[in-house]
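To the wet lab folks,

You asked to see what we're planning to order before we commit. Fair enough. Below is the target structure as tokens, and below that is the sequence we designed to fit it. If anything looks off to you, flag it before the synthesis order goes out.
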């Protein structure tokens, strides 16, 4: 598989590493998350190279490596361990269900970080239907790993999860309902702009309104929209001093209309584009993957 049908660089030379984590074994309302990585990459072929917001073509400046797909839970951690020590790389992992996130952070993050966690669900269960590594438990594991959680878009939780959000000093939570107010949106963007240190961004695609992303494992009424998500990317990548080491997009299920995967592919392009500007690529020499292809 390729990103935007562009040539693949070697892993050690690439600016962007895309992991395909085809893992969706934990119990979900719907099945099919394991097929999402390739469906999102296929959909990326439909996304223009030019970023109309940031007014440059990110892939003229950046190279990309799409890694071999991962099908074993035990392999997920390793996908992030072999990132280059010689150059800065952004690791974007396409899931899979949300149980993959704590494995990815185990491999990628060397010290306590802030996890920006976009999700409709709190995902703070210790176990879910007897499964410790379920799509309902990632936030629990991330806290256990010593990270701080900035939760965004939450609108579904168990009572014990609500209590934990209130009591745990390592959790900041912006509920979806509150985010309907402009003032709270602004407050969140300000908070993200003030982040420092290592950051990991986990985007459960069910954070979006199901009208925009209909096909996810556990859809939930309410939800944020695409433009607010790009505001979050801007605050994180361009306005803050944080160093974003990795991103994941999880819980998507490919569907016939392709609307959900096209949304995810566009979001993926924006993530790469904003990170690129944060690293100053748009004023560097054009050595990117798009320079190797003739088609527009
Ligand atoms: Mn989730």
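Sequence we intend to order:
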């Amino acid at each position: 598989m390729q990103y935007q049908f562009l040539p693949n660089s070697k892993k050690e030379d690439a600016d962007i590493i895309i992991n395909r984590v085809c893992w969706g074994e934990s119990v979900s309302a719907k099945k099919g998350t394991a097929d999402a990585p390739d469906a999102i990459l296929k959909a990326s072929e439909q996304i223009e190279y030019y970023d109309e917001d940031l007014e440059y073509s990110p892939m003229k400046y950046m190279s990309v490596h799409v890694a071999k797909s991962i099908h074993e839970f035990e392999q997920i951690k390793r996908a992030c361990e072999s990132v280059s020590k010689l150059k800065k790389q952004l690791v974007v992992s396409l899931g899979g269900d949300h149980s993959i996130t704590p494995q990815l952070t185990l491999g990628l993050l060397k010290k306590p970080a802030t996890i920006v966690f976009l999700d409709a669900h709190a995902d703070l269960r210790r176990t879910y239907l007897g499964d410790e590594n379920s799509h309902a438990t990632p936030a629990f594991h991330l806290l256990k790993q010593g990270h701080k959680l900035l939760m965004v878009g939450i609108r579904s939780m168990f009572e014990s999860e609500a209590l934990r959000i209130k009591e745990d000093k390592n959790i900041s939570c912006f509920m979806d309902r509150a985010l309907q107010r402009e003032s709270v949106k602004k407050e969140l963007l300000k908070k993200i702009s003030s982040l420092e240190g290592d950051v990991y961004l986990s985007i459960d695609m069910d954070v979006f309104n199901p009208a925009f992303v209909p096909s996810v494992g556990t859809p939930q009424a309410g939800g944020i929209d695409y433009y607010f998500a790009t505001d979050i990317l801007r605050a994180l990548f361009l306005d803050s001093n944080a160093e974003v080491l990795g991103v994941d997009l999880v819980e998507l299920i490919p569907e016939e209309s392709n609307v959900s995967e096209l949304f995810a592919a566009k979001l993926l392009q924006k993530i790469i584009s904003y990170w690129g500007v944060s690293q100053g690529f748009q004023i560097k020499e054009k050595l990117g993957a798009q320079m190797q292809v003739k088609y527009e």
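Structural context that might help your review: The longest strand covers residues 243-250. The chain has one domain: 16-292.

Thanks,
Computational group
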